[in-house]
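Deliverable D4.2, example record:
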Amino acid sequence: MKLLGIFGNKAEKGAARKAKSINDLKALEIYSGMRVVVEDQEGQVLFIARLQDLQGDTARLYQYSDTEAIQDTDAEAVRHKESVQVKMRGYNDHKRTAVFMEGTISQKQKHIWQVEDLVITKVENERFFSRFDTDIDAVITMPGSRDGGEISCRLKNISVGGAGLCSGYRYYKGDRFFLKVKLLEEKPVVTLYCEVLRVIEKDPDRFEYGCQFLELTEAGREEIARELEEVAGRA
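Output generated by the structure prediction step:
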């Protein structure tokens, strides 16, 4: 009876490991097509890409930027087709969760990277993209404004998912407006439809707002991602 108990425990543990492995693979599959920020182990942004072709714990990264992505410290390893350990952060629109992953990458051809030993390290209910700190002028326009008036504000930080603003004008949670800002001097003004998620009153005439972007097309997201990568590269 004891032997049967031992074998039974081993069988149960083996089944549990197998079930966990299957569940892990299924968990990875739902993130196919997700945009991710790829970083080195020190947290330096390498490039932004789309995670696709998930098969088990392997996948492909299709890089967005046309610029040279990998940092100098990793360039030699990449040239010799050696793998580079990286961290990835993405946002799953369906689940509305931030997803953190790790794996090793090697370049297969220009702008295409092979990922191996891919694992999910953390899932959180929050916006994911690195919020790049800024301090630049921006303009807010309320939809349907009769006079078409524009209210000045400061863009304090921005990510692909949203932005942090500072203004002397009072808004409330749930308010929606158009944000116009020029992220790079040589680029045209970007117009983004925003919703206020968080309000912080610093003093009677200064407010900070945490906003998320709404109705942003895939092409729009990719354009912002490219501009943010340039902003990060110049920081």
